[in-house]
Design a protein that fits this description.
2 strands, mainly alpha
Length: about 110
C-alpha cells in the first residue's frame, strides 16, 4: 500500500527529485495522497504497476533529467500559513441577517 502523506516521498519531491512509486494500492483509496500530488504535477510517468513496468521505468530513467519535480509546493509554509491566517485569524464573517417573514393575524 501507499502512504497517505508519506514524508519520504514528500521530502524527496521537495528536494526536486523525481519519485518512483507504485500506482497500485489495495487500501480502498486511503493511501493515495502521494499519487494525487504527483499526478497533479504531471509526474504520473514515474508510476509503475508491476515488476515489468518497474524494470522498464528503471532502465529508461534519466538521472540527469532537469525539471520541476516538486509536487508539494502548495504545502510549503508560506502557502499553508496564508490559508491558516485566512481561516483562523482573519476577520470573522458578518453575522447572518435576520428577516421577519411571519405576519400577524387577528
Amino acid at each position: 500500500g501507499g502512504e497517505t502523506f508519506g514524508l519520504a516521498v514528500a521530502e524527496f519531491s521537495v528536494h526536486n527529485r523525481p519519485v518512483l512509486t507504485s500506482s497500485i494500492h489495495d487500501d480502498n483509496g486511503f493511501g493515495r495522497m502521494h499519487l494525487d500530488c504527483l499526478s497533479a504535477k504531471g509526474l504520473g510517468s514515474y508510476f509503475y504497476k508491476d515488476h515489468k513496468s518497474l524494470v522498464d521505468l528503471l532502465l529508461r530513467f534519466d538521472r540527469t533529467a532537469k525539471g520541476d519535480f516538486n509536487a508539494y509546493r502548495s504545502f510549503e509554509p508560506t502557502q499553508v500559513m496564508a490559508i491558516f491566517e485566512k481561516v483562523f485569524l482573519g476577520a470573522p464573517p458578518p453575522p447572518p441577517t435576520i428577516t421577519s417573514t411571519s405576519t400577524a393575524t387577528s
